[in-house]
Structure formats: structure tokens, C-alpha cells
TrEMBL record:
It comes from the Bacteria. Mg(2+) binds at S211, T231. This is GTPase HflX. Its main location: cytoplasm. Its cofactor is Mg(2+). It comes from Agarivorans albus MKT 106. The gene is hflX.
Amino acid sequence: MFDRYEAGEQAILVHVNFSDEDEREDLEELKMLVSSAGVNAVATITGSRVSPHPKYFVGAGKAEEIAELVKSAQADVIIFNHALSPAQERNLEMLCEARVLDRTTLILDIFAQRARTHEGKLQVELAQLRHMSTRLIRGWTHLERQKGGIGLRGPGETQLETDRRLLRARIKQIQQRLEKVGKQREQGRRARQRAELPTVSLAGYTNAGKSTLFNRITESKVYAADQLFATLDPTLRKIDIEDVGKVILADTVGFIRHLPHDLVAAFKATLTETREAQLLLHVIDCSDERMAENVEQVEVVLDEIGAGDIPFLQVYNKVDQHPDMSPRIERDDQGLPQKVWVSALTGEGLPLLFKAISERLVGDMVNHTLRLPPSEGRLRSRLYQLDCVAGERLDDEGNIVVDIRLDAIAWQRLDKQFDHSLESFIAQCE
């Protein structure tokens, strides 16, 4: 139904500087996005405006300049570093006689190239269809004609109406499939919660080094590359943290400024891993000149997806690129770790990161010694499932004496699961 450009085409990049801070985009980031999409940028046109032009987004003179450059450079596509309205895209395409893409469409195309799993592909298609549903009219000249001819006369539905109806049906179908996938994810999440396994989720700006850090910590081989949005599909692995035990580490999609809302909505199931984590590791590229802006943008997206109140630990990555930086932990006034400097590439500072995660997850830990009679085999088995047994021995009466260590919340949950109060087993040891 839709014509998507093929990777490797010749592109003209258009970037406009606005006086309003909220309207501004980063030209270097656009070049990275274009490179990630596999497009060859042959020229870049920049300009300044107070506000977007209603017809062409840029001024009429600048639009003519773009049209002339497209012909002289024999470009196939024009990529704007901004969000365009359907009318602006249509007007620019008619003037320049070339395909016009805005920032949102470019990001969606990169996501379409990167998606590997069935769920990821469905999520990207849903986001693309929602975005394209407002742009059906611009690529076709015949869409407003009614069907005619033998066998086609009747209600007079236009081609545009037909396409919109088919589009709505496809969107509904994808949403139903994603709901099914979401229920499957929820089952796995509930199973982890029953096992009392805390989740630590990696979050951060795209290309901050999350997947490289994930691979270093878990000894996995998740795809990692020096490009934007190398990771789309969430990956979960178990790791061991000292004084905590088994922990689930989740690698998720990176964020970017002005992340398309359709994309956030489509990736709702994936981002649940971030929203329901006990601790977020906010990975930050300390070698990036826009570090402060990127941190702010990640916090904005975290608020948008409902993860703004989750405790987080800032992980400043790529210290190997700074000779004056060294791995270290920075703490608050209460001595709680707030920032850790590491290098995911070389492994420097990882022991400090594990130490900081342990301190942040431990919270209110409880240490108890329980005296269990032989009839409490079910409770003993549950303690081993929680991986909280530090030691076990038999007393002279044949009872099992178990030393346990787990967090206070897990202890309270465990206490509610059994008929006898666990406090009674503690009292027998005193």
C-alpha cells in the first residue's frame, strides 16, 4: 500500500534552527540517524526561522533552493530534521519532485530495519500504520476518485476510503496480536515476581553503550554497534549480585529526543520491563558533548512512560575515552551510591558497578535463623527457591536450622504464604 524508500539512496538533509528551545533539533544527531538508516547524505541545507512556514515548513525561497539542489545533486529523497504535517510533505514533494521524509518517518524506518522478533516487527508496523494513516492522501493522485466501470458501480466508495478502512482493520488486527503477546509477557513477569527476583533495567539515550554493558555484565552476545537504535527487542538475563542473589537484568530500546508518540504507544509492552523494574541503570555516554541534554531527554521519556518515580543509578559509560577520568562511585549525603563511572568496552569499573547495584538493591535486608521441624519441608523448599539460604544444619532433636538472608518485602510476602507465622520459627531458635 505504501512506497518506502530503499536504503542507500542519495539524500538531501534539511535542518532549521528555531528560536524556541523546544522546537530545536540536533543536526549531528540527524546525520547519525541517516547513517543508521543506510542513507547517503549528499548535501545539507540549514536555515533559521522564528516559526515553521505553514506551506513548506521552510520559507518559499528556501524551498526553491532545496528543489534546485535536488535536481543538481540527483537526490532521491529529502529528509527533514523535524516533524512535518501531511500538507507540508505533500507541498514539498510537488515542488521538489522527490520523496520527502520527516524525522518521525526516518526513526520509524530505522526501527523497521532493526526489528528482529515477531513482537518487535508488529510494534513497528503498528507505529508506521498509525503515522501513515494521516498521510494516505499525499502519495496518490487517484485516491479521491470513485470506483467505476462494469462490476464496480455501487456505493461509490473512494479509493482513499477503501485504503483507510483496510488500514483500520490491519491496525485492529495488530493490536489484538500485541495484546496476546503482552499477556504472555505478563505471565513471565508474574513468574519472576513469585520467585521474588528483582529486576534491574538498563535505560538511557540511544548509542550510550547499554547493550555493550549488558554483554559485559551477562557474558551474552546481544547485538551491539556504534549506531542509533542498535537494540529494539528487550533481552532478559539472570545475574548474581553479592548480598542480593539472583537478579534479572533487562536491556531495552534506547531513547531519543522527541521520540515519536506512536512509537512510545506501540512499544508499551516492551517498556513495561522499564516501568516495573526495582532499579533503573541510567547509562550515560560521558564522552558525548550533549551529555546534559541527553540526560534531560531520557528523564522526560521516563516520565512519559510512567517510570519517572523508579529509583535509578546513573552509570557514566566510556571513561576509557577520557584520560583524565577513572572508575569511581559518587555517593549522596546518606552514603547511597548515585553515580558510577565505568567502561563497558574495557570492563573498567564493573566491580564498582556491582557493588553499587548491591547497595541500592539490598535496602532493608533481614537476617534470620529458623528452626524448622521435619514437617515443614514445603517451607524449606520455598526458601531454596528464593535463593536466600546462607547455611543449613541439623540440631540434636532432628530439626533443620536454616540461616536466611532476603529483603524485608520478600520476607513479608513469604510470611503471608504460610499458615504458621514465620516469627514462631525464629522464636524457637532464641
